[in-house]
Amino acid sequence: MDKKTTEEALQKTGKGLKGVVGEFKEFISKGNVLDMAVGLIVGSAFTAIVNSLVDDILMPVIGTVLVGINFSSLGITIPWGNHPFIAIGSFLNTIITFLLTALCVFLIVKTMNMFRRKQEEKPAPPKPSKEEQLLTEIRDLLAAQQGKPIQKDEKKNN
């Protein structure tokens, strides 16, 4: 490859890179990416709350109801090999955490959809009746004959 071909290839690569960087800046500056980032941060905080609810409140209550079972240490030790421990209690905690998180997300989405439907169902303001239209026209004509400008507030009230 000669020097000229190498320089042309570098220029094309530089232009392509600038295009990609510009597209990336445009992508990042859009609201959707920022909304997604906020959602991820709030979601991770919410996960910590649900984990605490399951581990610190629900599982001890369930364990007490089920004759004092401590779910955090519940498991099976396999007697052969190097005695691995299968943590069934931890797995149950994870399942309950998942179900509670899924329930909360479902309720949030259901609530949001309910609000959207209510907004979509709002009827458009009724058109003024023929009498109202005629009275508005008469008012406008009288004001024009007297040389008074019609204010926007007057039109909104009628």
TrEMBL record:
Q: Which UniProt keywords apply?
A: Cell membrane, Ion channel, Ion transport, Membrane, Transmembrane, Transmembrane helix, Transport
So which domain of life are we looking at?
Bacteria
Q: What subcellular compartments does it reside in?
A: Cell membrane
Q: Where are the transmembrane segments?
A: 36-54, 61-80, 86-109
Name a single GO cellular component: plasma membrane
Q: Which PROSITE patterns match?
A: MSCL
List the Gene Ontology MF annotations in alphabetical order. Answer: mechanosensitive monoatomic ion channel activity
Bilayer topology annotation? Multi-pass membrane protein
Family per UniProt? Belongs to the MscL family.
The record ties this protein, via PANTHER family, to: LARGE-CONDUCTANCE MECHANOSENSITIVE CHANNEL (PTHR30266:SF2), MECHANOSENSITIVE CHANNEL MSCL (PTHR30266)
Q: How does it assemble?
A: Homopentamer.
Its name, as the record gives it, is Large-conductance mechanosensitive channel
Species: Ruminococcus callidus ATCC 27760
Organism lineage? Bacteria, Bacillati, Bacillota, Clostridia, Eubacteriales
